[in-house]
Amino acid sequence: MPVNTVQTLRDEIENGIVTGDFKPGSRLDETQLANRYGVSRTPVREALMQLSASGFVEIRPRRGAIVVEIGPQRLYEMFEVMAELEGLAGALAARRCSEADREAIRIAHTQCAKSAANGETDAYYYDNEVFHRAIYKASHSQFLAEQCLALHRRLRPFRRLQLRVRNRLPSSYAEHDGIVQAIFDGDADRTSSLLRSHIVVQGDRFSDLIATLKLHTETPPQEKRIS
Amino acid sequence: MPVNTVQTLRDEIENGIVTGDFKPGSRLDETQLANRYGVSRTPVREALMQLSASGFVEIRPRRGAIVVEIGPQRLYEMFEVMAELEGLAGALAARRCSEADREAIRIAHTQCAKSAANGETDAYYYDNEVFHRAIYKASHSQFLAEQCLALHRRLRPFRRLQLRVRNRLPSSYAEHDGIVQAIFDGDADRTSSLLRSHIVVQGDRFSDLIATLKLHTETPPQEKRIS
DNA sequence: GTCAACATTCTTGTATGCAAGAAGTCGGCT
DNA sequence: AGCCGACTTCTTGCATACAAGAATGTTGAC
């Protein structure tokens, strides 16, 4: 819980976006938000800019901030990158992890086992995060961990949905098991491969299909500013 | 050339950081910057926040912004991630690139050839960027392209240094040649592999060495906020 | 002489006010 | 009657003012 107004606002608005309180495509009026949270427009503006940097909203000059809509195409691209980064983290973890890292992974894995066995989706969702963070940490790459966490955060709502809707708990846990084995065996390639397919559930075919599909239809739904 | 004050300020300060005008570790006083650029403190603050999001500065609550110092450890981590992302972009490009993409890559490659032959480091530096961007585009992953560009931007000063100091022009161009071949052959794995080693010049050994070295020495120089 | 506590000053964080640009509306012209 | 243009209004963007917290310097006591 940050004592800073801006941080609080940022989390609040982000939460609103994630929970669907602020619908994609809707305008976020600075004055309205300022009134809503009982603060001035200045911290609201700063919070919106931070959210813009995180990719949650898009700020068009003189035209206000709108909640970005993540289409299926873009969503797949994000999962694709996530898979690659997680794969790298796993590969590095397999090569570099210390005994303490192994222990942390083992504990997180055991927790996942419990939640999966009881079918507690919410608990598993949390434990799953802990598990993946343990792998990030074991990669001993601070920067990579940061990147992974940022993307993870951005994909959080969709990930949650994924787990809920498709009831992937058992298969997810089974995949974790293989990943843990591969890391403990020090097999970087196998770890990377398993983690990639763990994230991107569908095969490469699907990604290619959508990519070429977009190639033909064109007219990207949102022109994202590179900044 | 953005008409926005904040954007201009952001670029200006970022440039100052890149060129060493603002030294790593030094404080960036809001009032000083405001006076220096003849604007108010408000846009300066917003620019600093954007730079914080990009990882150029670190803002500590109530204690101002300081230029982040990128140590060798972190630098290597960033190159490592960059290599992985470029590898992914290349792999996707090999599978998905259209005729227009191939043409763009060919043209950029030819430009690199000219600059390399003439030994024009600055020109090659620019052409190299165009070349890599062509690959990003050919990956047909907007999100991946954005990530690559952001990291590229962050690593820009170091990359330039790398090219200058080590006189890597000929070998860099030779590597490009292999990459282009692999993409045109549609060989995703080979493209990915070549691009990875193109970015991370040193082998994996070095990364492991530094990682374990950090493991022993500990005391991370800067505690980066994940945000 | 040194250390600690208090006060002062300086900087950041937030609020408000003002100006400029964009969108919606109304009126005139074709 | 429809379309183009000016006007009004609303919102953003920037500046300034004020408050609160941190750093530093000074003074007093041990």
Structure notes:
The structure is a homodimer of 227-residue chains. Chain A has 227 residues and is mainly α. Chain A folds into 2 domains: 5-67, Orthogonal Bundle (Arc Repressor Mutant, subunit A), CATH 1.10.10.10; 72-210, Four Helix Bundle (Hemerythrin (Met), subunit A). Chain A has helices at 5-18, 30-37, 41-54, 72-96, 99-118, 121-138, 142-166, 169-184, 188-199, 204-217; strands at 27-28, 57-60, 64-67. The first copy, chain A, has a 3-stranded antiparallel sheet with strand order 1-3-2. In chain A, helix 2 packs across helix 3 (41-54) and helix 5 runs antiparallel to helix 6. Chain A binds chain B through residues 3-4, 42, 45-46, 49-50, 53-54, 61, 73-74, 77-78, 80-81, 84-85, 88, 92, 95-96, 98, 140-144, 146-147, 149-150, 204, 207-208, 211-212, 214-215, 220, 224, 226-227, and chain B through 3-4, 42, 45-46, 49-50, 53-54, 61, 73-74, 77-78, 80-81, 84-85, 88, 92, 95-96, 98, 140-144, 146-147, 149-150, 204, 207-208, 211-212, 214-215, 220, 224, 226-227. The first copy, chain A, binds a DNA duplex (30 and 30 nucleotides) through helix 3.
